[in-house]
Amino acid sequence: REPGSGDNGPAPGDEIEALAKRHLLQPWESLEHLGQSARTVLDRAENIYLYDSEGNKLIDAPAGMWCVQVGYGCREIAEAMANQAMQLAYNSPWYTTSGPAAELAARIADKTPGDLNHIFFTTGGSTAVDSALRFVQFYNNYLGRPEKKLILSRQSAYHGSTYLSASCSGKERDKVFLDFAGNLVHHLSSPLVYRRPDGMTEAQFCDFLIAEMESTILEKGADKIAAFIAEPILASGGVVVPPEGYHKRTLELCRKHEILYIADEVVTAFGRLGHWFASEEVFGITPDIITFAKGITSGYVPLGGMAVSQKVMAEVSGSDAKGAVYSNGYTYSGHPVSCAAAMANMDVIEKEGILEHVRDITPYFQDKLAELDALALVGDVRGAGLVGCVDCVADRKAKNPLKLDSEVGGRIDAHCQEKGLIVRPVYNMCVMSPPLVIRERQIDTMVGILRAGIEDTMVDLEREGLW
Ligand code: PMP
């Protein structure tokens, strides 16, 4: 099909754009430009490539929103969904269950660390985090300590867009116009090594973060703190890889003070770091609860969930738990079509050796990205597995150029899109988290275009006197 041709096909790109401008309230929309801003209209996708409505081919560097693990056009997943839709399109999770939900739960339990064997399905990452937080509330209320409510989170974390998950997020910009359950959350410092206080080594920075967490616990009272929620790598906060030892030491503090540890693996699970889950295999910890979403279906259909440890579950269930109800669920909890997609996705990941591939190709990807550190606009390049971030600064010493704040990522993305690459701009950063099936040659092209996009942006900034 020629893009935009034929009366029976989808509307041509400019018609779609016009309809979107008139009627679509886009997520995270800038209302100053409501009805004006044009987002790239996509038409189809294959492997790691997106095709826009004009037929332009773009490498999808962020894999959608860090989710399209096996790449686009995976027939096995599409067929599994179609077959399941014909066999049993839906079942009520209120009073029935289905083969795909039960089998997927068993399969996930087999992959989670330790005894995290109770799986609760949700509709995505935000509802997974919300369910985990509400489970923690249920847990403490049930155990007769309703004052143990506070959640420890971190600055620049992102945990979702529902009221409670958003309250745990630490991005200041998201908090300007919306209310949050501020009384329920306390934000600790972001473990961003690059912007650690002057004069500290990485090890000293880790000590500083642990000391801050411990003094917060002592100050607020361990009997008031219910949980610590942490992305193993803070993803949309700018690919923050905490200092060596941080994960183990935060878990130790939680154990010492009877605080539940929720690892938000919405981005890091299902292969992004070369393992089904990163908590144990990459960072050596077994949390109490893990939340997941995104990569579980490679983004083909929405699904999320949480895994709760048997130990925690045992404390609030069984013959003593008369009348106790974890009163939380969704019409689409354990949706059979989503679960069938997830099973097919896991089959593909196994059959094609995608976890091994990620582990093999990670050094190549990280080394290539690191070459961009030589550019004068780039202050830091960081990452792990198949996720990386280029952090731009005006002055490599000062690290934080106010004049350029919030703009540079978008400028680079605009240049890259002209050359065949979509990057994910976050303030002054560009995030790369490609589909996990990416090959070396494709990484070369991706990083080559990113380099050109940064160079073009440097020329623009100089011309406009901004740099
Ligand atoms: N947690 C993390 C770590 C995330 O990155 C995201 C989404 N970017 C979420 C939760 C929320 O997931 P969703 O958008 O599927 O609701």
TrEMBL record:
Belongs to the class-III pyridoxal-phosphate-dependent aminotransferase family. Residues 1-13 are annotated as: Disordered. SUPFAM superfamilies: PLP-dependent transferases. InterPro entries: Aminotrans_3, Aminotrans_3_PPA_site, PyrdxlP-dep_Trfase, PyrdxlP-dep_Trfase_major, PyrdxlP-dep_Trfase_small. Pfam families: Aminotran_3. This is Adenosylmethionine-8-amino-7-oxononanoate aminotransferase. Signal peptide: none annotated. Gene3D superfamilies: Aspartate Aminotransferase, domain 1, Type I PLP-dependent aspartate aminotransferase-like (Major domain). It comes from the Bacteria. Keywords: Aminotransferase, Pyridoxal phosphate, Transferase. One of its GO terms (molecular function) is pyridoxal phosphate binding. Its cofactor is pyridoxal 5'-phosphate.
